[in-house]
Structure formats: structure tokens, C-alpha cells
Amino acid sequence: MVTKRRDAPMIYAPARPPRDEAALGDYVYRELTRVGDALRASRMLVVPTCYVAPAKPVEGQLVRADGVHWDPGEGVGYYCYWDGNWQRWAVERDKDDKDEKDVNDGEDHNDY
């Protein structure tokens, strides 16, 4: 099932496959179409805020630390798990501090 929420990108969940093998080809086609629709609808990456360290981090995992309940070392911000450590990936801009820069050049390069 594809669900749509106002505050999150579309999420794909597969439908139950048919019992009849003859219907399997149509099922696969429909499901791949739904996967494609969900991917096209997801124009943003939603990174969850973590208040505790993930129990089993995996290489390349991206999270946002709240910086208070869980602080991987440099306060609130985005971290990626590399080489067994949480590495700071981005600095968040304080709404009152116009001088702080984030990982991009401050320009909006989004195409949506």
C-alpha cells in the first residue's frame, strides 16, 4: 500500500502476492509501478531526530542528534556513522545567527 501524509514522503508497502501463479506477472508489474510512484513522490530525505544513540548503527547510517539527550560530540546536528564512529555531517543554522554556514554554500539547490 502507498500512503501519503502531509508531513512525510510517500512510503511503499507491498501488497499480498497472488496465490495463482498465472497472476504473478501482473502482480510484479503493479508492484514495480507502485515502487516507482513512491520513489518519484519522495523528493526529500526525512532524517529522524534521535534522542538516544541507535542501538546497532550501520556504516553510512545518517541521523540527526538532538544534542541534549544524545550528543555524539558536537551538539545538535546531522551525523553519519563511519569507521565505527559518529562523524559530524552538517551544521544546523541557528535562526538568529546569520553567520553560521551549513554544509552547502547557503544556496537552495533543490529542484522541487
Secondary-structure blueprint:
Elements: E1 2-5, E2 8-12, H1 24-41, E3 49-50, E4 62-65, E5 77-82, E6 85-90
Parallel strand pairs: 3-4
Antiparallel strand pairs: 1-2, 4-5, 5-6
Radius of gyration: 19 Å
**Order of the strands making up the biggest sheet:** 3-4-5-6
Beta percentage is 15-25%
Overall tally of domains: 2
Number of strands: 6
Sheet with the most strands? 4 strands, mixed
Distance between the termini: 25 Å
- What is the number of helical segments per DSSP (H or I, 4+ residues)? 1
Backbone shape: elongated
Class by helix and strand content?
alpha+beta
What's the rounded overall pLDDT mean? 79
Q: Detail the poorly predicted runs.
A: 1-7, 99-112
**Helix-strand pattern, N to C?**
EEHEEEE
Work out the helicity level.
10-25%
Short description, anyone?
This protein has 2 domains: 2-41, no CATH class; 49-90, no CATH class. 16% of the residues lie in helices and 24% in strands.
Give a verbal description of the structure.
Residues 93-112 are annotated as: Disordered. Helices cover 16% and strands 24% of the residues. It is of the alpha+beta class and 112 residues long. It folds into two domains: 2-41, no CATH class; 49-90, no CATH class. A four-stranded mixed sheet has the order 3-4-5-6, with no helix packed on it. The chain has a two-stranded antiparallel sheet with strand order 1-2. It starts with a strand and ends in a 22-residue tail after the last strand.
